[in-house]
Write a structure and sequence with these properties.
binds adenosine-5'-diphosphate; binds magnesium ion; 2 domains; nucleotide-binding; 11 helices; 5 strands; 51% helix; disordered C terminus
Length: 281
Amino acid sequence: MSRNAPAIDAQRLSLILNDLRLPAIKLIWPDFTTRADKEGWPGARLLAALAEHEIAERDRRRIERHLGEARLPPGKTLDSFAFDAVPMISRARVTALCSGDGWLEKGANLIFFGPPGGGKTHLAAAIGLALIENGWRVLFTRTSDLVQKLQVARRELALEAAIAKLDKYHLLILDDLAYVTKDQAETSVLFELISARYERRSTLITANQPFGEWNRVFPDPAMTLAAVDRLVHHATIFEMNVESYRRRSAIQRQSRAGRPPTFATTKSNEEMSRSDNQTCE
Ligand code: ADP
Ligand code: MG
Protein backbone atom coordinates (compact mmCIF):
# COMPACT_ATOMS: atom_id res chain seq x y z
CA MET A 1 0.00 0.00 0.00
CA SER A 2 1.39 3.47 -0.77
CA ARG A 3 2.51 5.64 2.09
CA ASN A 4 -0.22 8.24 1.47
CA ALA A 5 -3.14 5.82 1.49
CA PRO A 6 -5.59 6.34 4.36
CA ALA A 7 -5.44 3.63 6.99
CA ILE A 8 -7.87 0.78 6.46
CA ASP A 9 -9.38 -1.25 9.28
CA ALA A 10 -8.50 -4.61 7.72
CA GLN A 11 -10.37 -6.59 10.31
CA ARG A 12 -13.58 -4.63 9.77
CA LEU A 13 -13.19 -4.95 5.99
CA SER A 14 -12.90 -8.71 6.40
CA LEU A 15 -16.14 -8.80 8.37
CA ILE A 16 -17.94 -6.68 5.80
CA LEU A 17 -16.74 -8.90 2.95
CA ASN A 18 -18.00 -11.89 4.93
CA ASP A 19 -21.39 -10.28 5.38
CA LEU A 20 -21.54 -9.46 1.70
CA ARG A 21 -20.54 -13.05 0.91
CA LEU A 22 -17.51 -12.09 -1.12
CA PRO A 23 -15.00 -14.71 0.04
CA ALA A 24 -12.74 -14.42 -3.01
CA ILE A 25 -12.33 -10.65 -2.60
CA LYS A 26 -11.75 -11.16 1.09
CA LEU A 27 -8.87 -13.44 0.25
CA ILE A 28 -7.23 -11.47 -2.54
CA TRP A 29 -7.78 -7.80 -1.74
CA PRO A 30 -4.47 -7.33 0.13
CA ASP A 31 -2.47 -8.63 -2.86
CA PHE A 32 -4.56 -6.85 -5.47
CA THR A 33 -4.53 -3.49 -3.71
CA THR A 34 -0.79 -3.68 -3.10
CA ARG A 35 -0.25 -4.41 -6.78
CA ALA A 36 -2.66 -1.67 -7.82
CA ASP A 37 -0.78 0.85 -5.65
CA LYS A 38 2.57 -0.28 -7.01
CA GLU A 39 1.49 -0.21 -10.65
CA GLY A 40 -0.75 2.83 -10.37
CA TRP A 41 -4.00 1.16 -11.49
CA PRO A 42 -7.00 3.49 -11.70
CA GLY A 43 -9.59 2.78 -8.98
CA ALA A 44 -12.11 1.47 -11.53
CA ARG A 45 -9.62 -1.08 -12.80
CA LEU A 46 -8.98 -2.36 -9.29
CA LEU A 47 -12.69 -2.66 -8.57
CA ALA A 48 -13.30 -4.48 -11.87
CA ALA A 49 -10.43 -6.91 -11.20
CA LEU A 50 -11.79 -7.74 -7.75
CA ALA A 51 -15.32 -8.20 -9.05
CA GLU A 52 -14.16 -10.40 -11.95
CA HIS A 53 -12.23 -12.57 -9.57
CA GLU A 54 -15.21 -13.02 -7.25
CA ILE A 55 -17.55 -14.00 -10.09
CA ALA A 56 -15.03 -16.47 -11.56
CA GLU A 57 -14.59 -18.10 -8.16
CA ARG A 58 -18.34 -18.24 -7.68
CA ASP A 59 -18.73 -20.07 -11.01
CA ARG A 60 -15.96 -22.46 -10.08
CA ARG A 61 -17.58 -23.26 -6.74
CA ARG A 62 -20.97 -23.78 -8.36
CA ILE A 63 -19.52 -26.18 -10.93
CA GLU A 64 -17.72 -28.04 -8.16
CA ARG A 65 -21.04 -28.41 -6.29
CA HIS A 66 -22.78 -29.61 -9.43
CA LEU A 67 -20.01 -32.12 -10.10
CA GLY A 68 -20.39 -33.43 -6.56
CA GLU A 69 -24.13 -33.93 -6.86
CA ALA A 70 -24.00 -35.49 -10.36
CA ARG A 71 -22.49 -38.84 -9.26
CA LEU A 72 -20.77 -39.36 -12.58
CA PRO A 73 -18.57 -42.43 -12.88
CA PRO A 74 -14.98 -41.20 -12.54
CA GLY A 75 -12.55 -40.86 -15.41
CA LYS A 76 -15.07 -40.94 -18.26
CA THR A 77 -14.21 -37.83 -20.26
CA LEU A 78 -14.47 -36.79 -23.89
CA ASP A 79 -10.69 -36.54 -24.01
CA SER A 80 -10.36 -40.20 -23.07
CA PHE A 81 -13.07 -41.29 -25.50
CA ALA A 82 -11.76 -42.73 -28.78
CA PHE A 83 -14.17 -41.41 -31.39
CA ASP A 84 -12.58 -43.53 -34.10
CA ALA A 85 -13.94 -46.58 -32.29
CA VAL A 86 -17.50 -45.42 -33.03
CA PRO A 87 -17.36 -44.13 -36.61
CA MET A 88 -21.12 -43.53 -36.67
CA ILE A 89 -20.74 -40.73 -34.09
CA SER A 90 -18.96 -37.53 -35.00
CA ARG A 91 -16.93 -35.65 -32.45
CA ALA A 92 -18.30 -32.37 -33.84
CA ARG A 93 -21.88 -33.52 -33.18
CA VAL A 94 -21.06 -34.50 -29.62
CA THR A 95 -19.15 -31.28 -29.01
CA ALA A 96 -22.18 -29.31 -30.20
CA LEU A 97 -24.44 -31.26 -27.81
CA CYS A 98 -22.08 -30.48 -24.94
CA SER A 99 -22.90 -26.78 -25.10
CA GLY A 100 -26.43 -27.80 -24.08
CA ASP A 101 -27.85 -24.97 -26.17
CA GLY A 102 -30.93 -25.65 -28.22
CA TRP A 103 -31.89 -28.99 -26.73
CA LEU A 104 -31.72 -28.79 -22.93
CA GLU A 105 -33.99 -25.72 -22.87
CA LYS A 106 -36.74 -27.61 -24.65
CA GLY A 107 -36.30 -30.88 -22.82
CA ALA A 108 -35.10 -32.90 -25.82
CA ASN A 109 -33.62 -36.34 -25.18
CA LEU A 110 -30.63 -38.45 -26.11
CA ILE A 111 -30.84 -42.21 -26.56
CA PHE A 112 -27.81 -44.45 -26.96
CA PHE A 113 -28.32 -47.98 -28.22
CA GLY A 114 -25.73 -50.69 -28.63
CA PRO A 115 -24.31 -53.92 -27.30
CA PRO A 116 -22.43 -54.00 -23.98
CA GLY A 117 -18.96 -52.51 -23.94
CA GLY A 118 -19.52 -50.17 -26.89
CA GLY A 119 -18.98 -47.01 -24.87
CA LYS A 120 -22.56 -45.89 -24.11
CA THR A 121 -21.95 -45.28 -20.42
CA HIS A 122 -18.60 -43.63 -21.10
CA LEU A 123 -20.02 -41.25 -23.69
CA ALA A 124 -23.08 -40.46 -21.56
CA ALA A 125 -20.91 -39.63 -18.54
CA ALA A 126 -18.50 -37.59 -20.65
CA ILE A 127 -21.34 -35.52 -22.10
CA GLY A 128 -22.72 -35.07 -18.57
CA LEU A 129 -19.35 -33.82 -17.36
CA ALA A 130 -18.97 -31.38 -20.24
CA LEU A 131 -22.48 -30.04 -19.68
CA ILE A 132 -21.74 -29.42 -16.01
CA GLU A 133 -18.58 -27.57 -16.96
CA ASN A 134 -20.78 -25.45 -19.20
CA GLY A 135 -23.04 -24.53 -16.32
CA TRP A 136 -25.85 -27.12 -16.55
CA ARG A 137 -27.00 -29.50 -13.84
CA VAL A 138 -26.86 -33.24 -14.42
CA LEU A 139 -27.62 -36.41 -12.45
CA PHE A 140 -26.20 -39.76 -13.49
CA THR A 141 -27.91 -42.87 -12.15
CA ARG A 142 -28.31 -46.50 -12.99
CA THR A 143 -31.90 -46.85 -14.10
CA SER A 144 -32.57 -49.69 -11.67
CA ASP A 145 -31.29 -47.64 -8.70
CA LEU A 146 -33.53 -44.72 -9.52
CA VAL A 147 -36.53 -46.96 -10.12
CA GLN A 148 -35.99 -48.48 -6.70
CA LYS A 149 -35.86 -45.06 -5.07
CA LEU A 150 -39.00 -43.95 -6.85
CA GLN A 151 -40.77 -47.11 -5.77
CA VAL A 152 -39.93 -46.42 -2.16
CA ALA A 153 -41.20 -42.87 -2.65
CA ARG A 154 -44.43 -44.21 -4.06
CA ARG A 155 -44.94 -46.50 -1.10
CA GLU A 156 -44.53 -43.42 1.09
CA LEU A 157 -47.02 -41.53 -1.11
CA ALA A 158 -44.28 -39.14 -2.16
CA LEU A 159 -43.69 -40.16 -5.78
CA GLU A 160 -44.76 -36.84 -7.24
CA ALA A 161 -42.45 -34.93 -4.92
CA ALA A 162 -39.56 -37.29 -5.70
CA ILE A 163 -40.04 -36.78 -9.42
CA ALA A 164 -40.38 -33.02 -8.95
CA LYS A 165 -37.07 -32.99 -7.07
CA LEU A 166 -35.36 -34.29 -10.20
CA ASP A 167 -36.57 -31.22 -12.08
CA LYS A 168 -33.55 -29.29 -10.92
CA TYR A 169 -31.42 -31.44 -13.22
CA HIS A 170 -31.42 -30.21 -16.79
CA LEU A 171 -30.25 -33.67 -17.81
CA LEU A 172 -31.06 -36.95 -16.09
CA ILE A 173 -28.86 -39.78 -17.31
CA LEU A 174 -30.61 -43.14 -16.95
CA ASP A 175 -27.93 -45.73 -17.54
CA ASP A 176 -28.91 -49.25 -18.63
CA LEU A 177 -32.62 -48.93 -19.11
CA ALA A 178 -33.04 -52.52 -20.17
CA TYR A 179 -31.81 -53.86 -16.88
CA VAL A 180 -34.92 -52.73 -15.06
CA THR A 181 -36.94 -55.75 -14.00
CA LYS A 182 -40.22 -56.43 -15.66
CA ASP A 183 -42.31 -55.93 -12.59
CA GLN A 184 -45.35 -53.82 -13.42
CA ALA A 185 -45.10 -51.52 -10.41
CA GLU A 186 -41.45 -50.76 -11.10
CA THR A 187 -41.87 -49.81 -14.68
CA SER A 188 -44.86 -47.63 -14.06
CA VAL A 189 -42.76 -45.31 -11.87
CA LEU A 190 -40.34 -45.09 -14.78
CA PHE A 191 -43.20 -44.25 -17.08
CA GLU A 192 -44.41 -41.55 -14.70
CA LEU A 193 -40.90 -40.07 -14.61
CA ILE A 194 -40.69 -40.03 -18.41
CA SER A 195 -44.12 -38.42 -18.67
CA ALA A 196 -43.31 -35.79 -16.07
CA ARG A 197 -40.12 -34.72 -17.86
CA TYR A 198 -41.66 -34.75 -21.33
CA GLU A 199 -40.93 -31.49 -23.19
CA ARG A 200 -39.68 -29.87 -20.00
CA ARG A 201 -36.51 -31.61 -18.90
CA SER A 202 -34.06 -33.73 -20.85
CA THR A 203 -33.26 -37.38 -20.26
CA LEU A 204 -30.37 -39.42 -21.66
CA ILE A 205 -31.06 -43.13 -21.82
CA THR A 206 -28.57 -45.89 -22.56
CA ALA A 207 -29.94 -49.28 -23.51
CA ASN A 208 -28.63 -52.57 -24.83
CA GLN A 209 -31.95 -53.42 -26.44
CA PRO A 210 -33.59 -51.55 -29.31
CA PHE A 211 -37.11 -50.14 -28.92
CA GLY A 212 -38.54 -53.32 -30.41
CA GLU A 213 -37.56 -55.13 -27.25
CA TRP A 214 -38.73 -52.54 -24.76
CA ASN A 215 -41.88 -54.56 -24.32
CA ARG A 216 -39.71 -56.55 -21.98
CA VAL A 217 -38.96 -53.39 -20.03
CA PHE A 218 -42.54 -52.14 -19.90
CA PRO A 219 -44.73 -55.26 -19.76
CA ASP A 220 -47.85 -53.37 -20.77
CA PRO A 221 -47.64 -52.69 -24.54
CA ALA A 222 -49.70 -49.50 -24.28
CA MET A 223 -47.29 -48.15 -21.67
CA THR A 224 -44.28 -49.11 -23.80
CA LEU A 225 -45.75 -47.29 -26.76
CA ALA A 226 -46.57 -44.19 -24.74
CA ALA A 227 -43.13 -44.11 -23.11
CA VAL A 228 -41.27 -44.54 -26.40
CA ASP A 229 -43.52 -41.98 -28.05
CA ARG A 230 -42.69 -39.32 -25.45
CA LEU A 231 -38.99 -40.14 -25.43
CA VAL A 232 -38.46 -40.02 -29.18
CA HIS A 233 -40.68 -37.03 -29.95
CA HIS A 234 -37.67 -34.71 -29.50
CA ALA A 235 -34.66 -36.98 -29.44
CA THR A 236 -31.28 -37.67 -30.92
CA ILE A 237 -30.61 -41.37 -31.22
CA PHE A 238 -27.10 -42.81 -31.42
CA GLU A 239 -26.81 -46.40 -32.61
CA MET A 240 -23.48 -47.51 -31.18
CA ASN A 241 -23.32 -50.88 -32.85
CA VAL A 242 -19.66 -51.56 -32.30
CA GLU A 243 -17.77 -54.40 -30.78
CA SER A 244 -16.90 -54.19 -27.12
CA TYR A 245 -14.12 -51.65 -26.63
CA ARG A 246 -12.59 -53.69 -23.83
CA ARG A 247 -12.45 -56.77 -26.02
CA ARG A 248 -10.96 -54.83 -28.90
CA SER A 249 -8.33 -53.26 -26.67
CA ALA A 250 -7.44 -56.69 -25.32
CA ILE A 251 -7.10 -58.06 -28.84
CA GLN A 252 -4.94 -55.12 -29.90
CA ARG A 253 -2.71 -55.56 -26.88
CA GLN A 254 -2.44 -59.23 -27.65
CA SER A 255 -1.46 -58.66 -31.29
CA ARG A 256 1.01 -55.96 -30.31
CA ALA A 257 2.58 -58.52 -28.03
CA GLY A 258 3.30 -60.60 -31.14
CA ARG A 259 0.58 -63.19 -30.73
CA PRO A 260 -1.95 -63.60 -33.51
CA PRO A 261 -5.45 -62.33 -32.66
CA THR A 262 -7.18 -65.62 -32.15
CA PHE A 263 -10.75 -64.37 -31.76
CA ALA A 264 -10.90 -61.15 -33.71
CA THR A 265 -13.89 -62.25 -35.73
CA THR A 266 -17.33 -60.76 -35.26
CA LYS A 267 -19.39 -62.37 -32.55
CA SER A 268 -23.06 -62.31 -31.85
CA ASN A 269 -24.32 -59.85 -29.25
CA GLU A 270 -25.00 -62.70 -26.91
CA GLU A 271 -21.45 -63.98 -27.13
CA MET A 272 -20.15 -60.46 -26.75
CA SER A 273 -22.11 -59.79 -23.62
CA ARG A 274 -20.82 -63.03 -22.14
CA SER A 275 -17.21 -62.19 -22.87
CA ASP A 276 -17.84 -58.58 -21.83
CA ASN A 277 -18.41 -59.73 -18.30
CA GLN A 278 -14.81 -60.73 -18.09
CA THR A 279 -12.38 -58.02 -17.27
CA CYS A 280 -9.76 -57.87 -19.98
CA GLU A 281 -7.81 -54.98 -18.47
P1 ADP B 1 -21.43 -49.74 -22.45
O1 ADP B 1 -22.01 -48.77 -21.48
O2 ADP B 1 -21.85 -49.52 -23.86
O3 ADP B 1 -21.62 -51.16 -22.02
P2 ADP B 1 -18.92 -48.68 -21.47
O4 ADP B 1 -19.07 -47.22 -21.70
O5 ADP B 1 -19.11 -49.16 -20.07
O6 ADP B 1 -19.84 -49.51 -22.47
O7 ADP B 1 -17.48 -49.11 -22.01
C1 ADP B 1 -16.77 -50.25 -21.49
C2 ADP B 1 -15.33 -49.83 -21.17
O8 ADP B 1 -14.65 -49.47 -22.35
C3 ADP B 1 -15.27 -48.62 -20.26
O9 ADP B 1 -14.14 -48.74 -19.43
C4 ADP B 1 -15.09 -47.45 -21.22
O10 ADP B 1 -14.40 -46.38 -20.61
C5 ADP B 1 -14.28 -48.09 -22.35
N1 ADP B 1 -14.65 -47.54 -23.64
C6 ADP B 1 -15.71 -47.90 -24.40
N2 ADP B 1 -15.72 -47.23 -25.58
C7 ADP B 1 -14.65 -46.43 -25.54
C8 ADP B 1 -14.11 -45.50 -26.47
N3 ADP B 1 -14.67 -45.26 -27.66
N4 ADP B 1 -12.98 -44.83 -26.11
C9 ADP B 1 -12.39 -45.07 -24.92
N5 ADP B 1 -12.84 -45.95 -24.00
C10 ADP B 1 -13.96 -46.63 -24.31
MG1 MG C 1 -23.09 -49.19 -19.77
